[in-house]
Write a structure and sequence with these properties.
The chain starts with a helix and ends with a strand. It is globular. Helix content is about 55%, strand content about 10%. α8 runs antiparallel to α13, α11 packs across α13 and α13 packs parallel to α17. The mean pLDDT is about 90. The chain is α+β, with helices and mostly antiparallel strands and about 400 residues long. The structure holds protoporphyrin IX containing FE.
């Protein structure tokens, strides 16, 4: 375990680790908050402490970015630009922008998108012949996410493939553990996004389009004016980082959870009212976003008997908090009947996920199609691969068969 503790202190989300949860449990027993040398920040593992952190307005995301900017010099440009992006804003500016983005999201036709996601999943999964093995990520998860983003933006998926390839580098530059490579990768990804999105933003400005992109650009009732650079960041992070990346991971984890719990899968096949609670339990048990973005304390804080000094950076490790035995009985068990299931996977607090209904809806749509088309699901673990990507967890390749 010692080596694993050392790994945790270098990279607390233990990217690609088969079972980080037993390490988190052992660490949580020692203390609900740990200092990690790699990312140079405090990491909170307890549930109630994480909830407090998510709600605490004495934390600043801009201040955390300033640490990174001073650490990376010219390469830190990406962090300067991230200041204009929703997850990194603070206070009033954040509240105002959040209101604008959530209003644009409220216009999404969820029923139409659910039926689109189902039809796409039906078409893709019906390509599987008999009990031949297939990679769910390549067959469905990757492209469904891109197709959904296309629907939302009103841009054909074929035009987005190059841009979608940049998503990993962009997301990596939003991780906890940064280095020269992740900083420059983020800058390059944003350059590619600029080439793609700026002409699109210019084309849609002044138009009266009904797609989400147009609604983000302008809302005549609000009178908000967003600069091109601000829009670029918000669109890249909303559509690509937040939506495409996490959804792709959720789809894989939903299927993996079913393959590893065959009796639960059969219950679901017989009773579709269990779909929504099953998706919630997947989100609790193995969350796609293992930690929230880091912030810095603007004054001294006391967390779990520890003083977090003003200026120190800190994050909440959602994957650990979701298995805190003070809140969840049998925290390691996958139990779809948990009720309530107050997991923290959408970061309930000041930066709560704005796409949570979209994520839930698509997770349930895919699970329902799997139930319809596959009387049983098995995973070939030796041929499947977890991705290795900082604070996000899920499959890069998931080999399944009937
Ligand atoms: C399984 C899917 C998803 C998960 C697990 C997830 C998780 C999260 C988490 C943990 C945060 C908080 C980040 C932080 O505080 O640092 C967040 C924020 C956000 N998410 Fe999601 N998300 C998912 C899907 C989506 C989708 C589909 C969209 C939009 C289409 C979306 C849009 C956003 C936005 C805009 C924020 C920033 C909110 C703010 O800073 O005020 N997410 N998400």
């Amino acid at each position: 375990m010692d080596l694993q503790f050392q790994q945790f202190h270098q990279d607390p989300c233990l990217p690609g680790h088969r079972n980080p949860y037993e390490i988190y449990a052992a660490l949580r027993q020692q203390s609900a908050v740990h200092w990690c040398e790699g990312p140079q920040m405090w990491v909170v593992l307890g549930y109630s402490e994480s909830v407090e952190l998510m709600r605490d307005a004495r934390l600043s995301r801009h201040d955390h970015l300033d640490h990174l900017i001073s650490r990376f010099g010219h390469n830190g440009q990406i962090y300067e630009r991230q200041k204009q992006d929703l997850p990194y804003m603070d206070g009033k500016q954040h509240a105002q922008m959040r209101q604008h983005v959530s209003k644009a999201y409220r216009g999404i036709d969820m029923a139409a998108l659910a039926s689109f996601a189902s039809q796409f999943a039906v078409e893709r999964l019906s390509r599987v012949q008999g009990d031949e093995p297939f990679d769910l990520v390549a067959l469905l998860a990757n492209e469904l996410s891109i197709m959904v983003v296309s629907e939302l933006m009103g841009v054909p998926a074929s035009q987005q493939l190059d841009v979608a390839n940049q998503v990993s580098a962009f997301v990596r530059a939003r991780g906890l553990t940064q280095n020269e490579q992740s900083a420059s990768g983020g800058n390059e990804a944003l350059d590619v996004y600029s080439q793609f999105f700026l002409p699109l933003i210019h084309e849609r400005r002044g138009g009266s389009g009904k797609d989400l992109l147009s609604r983000l650009i302008a809302d005549p009732e609000e009178g908000i004016h967003l600069s091109d650079d601000q829009l670029l960041l918000i669109i890249s992070s909303n559509f690509y980082s937040a939506s495409l990346y996490t959804l792709r991971l959720l789809i894989g984890t939903v299927a993996w959870a079913m393959a590893s719990h065959p009796a639960t899968y059969q219950r679901l096949r017989n009773d579709r009212t269990l779909l929504a609670p099953a998706v919630e339990e997947v989100l609790r048990w193995d969350p796609p976003a293992q930690a929230i973005n880091a912030s810095s304390a603007t004054e001294d804080l006391h967390i779990a008997g520890q003083i977090i000094r003003a200026g120190d950076s800190i994050t909440a490790l959602v994957g650990a908090a979701n298995r805190d035995p003070k809140v969840f009985e049998q925290p390691d068990a996958f139990l779809i009947e948990r009720s309530p299931n107050p997991h923290l996977s959408f970061a309930p607090g000041l930066h709560q996920c704005l796409g949570l209904q979209l994520a839930r809806m698509q997770g349930a749509a895919v699970l329902s199609v799997l139930c319809d088309q596959f009387e049983s699901l098995h995973c070939i673990q030796a041929e499947s691969r977890l991705q290795v990507a900082d604070r996000f967890r899920g499959y890069e390749c998931l080999i399944l068969h009937r």
